[in-house]
Design brief:
The protein is mainly β. Helix content is 4%, strand content 45%. It has a four-stranded antiparallel sheet with strand order 2-3-4-9. A four-stranded antiparallel sheet has the order 5-6-7-8.
């Protein structure tokens, strides 16, 4: 994560706090909520709110591989890119750069 990519970054948790197949929510200092996903050995962060139904993905979403499903209306997103994959979701999720250092997870915003 370079300084050109983000103006700030913050520690949100340790790597051990993000379990395979589960979604962890966190709040950034500016009030944005993010959802964190572990896919293989890499961690990704997206906006926590579904772009279709305003549901919290960290509280109500289901993760399968790199796809998160919003259980309100069953739309899906690719957590690695934020892309909306299935209807009724058409707008992509905002993604955030993630850096792992010394076992801690940092999110840029």
């Amino acid at each position: 994560m370079s300084a050109a990519e983000v103006s700030n970054k913050v520690k949100v948790c340790s790597v051990a706090d993000i379990l395979d197949g589960e979604i962890k929510g966190a709040e950034l200092p500016d009030g944005q909520r993010v959802a964190l996903y572990k896919v293989g050995e890499k961690i990704y962060a997206t906006a926590d709110t579904c772009t279709h139904g305003e549901a919290s993905l960290s509280e109500e979403g289901l993760l399968s591989g790199n796809v998160v499903e919003c259980t309100w209306h069953f739309g899906t997103f690719d957590v690695t890119t934020g892309a909306a994959l299935t209807s009724p979701c058409t707008a992509a999720l905002k993604t955030f750069p993630v850096e792992v250092a010394d076992g801690d997870v940092y999110v840029g915003y």
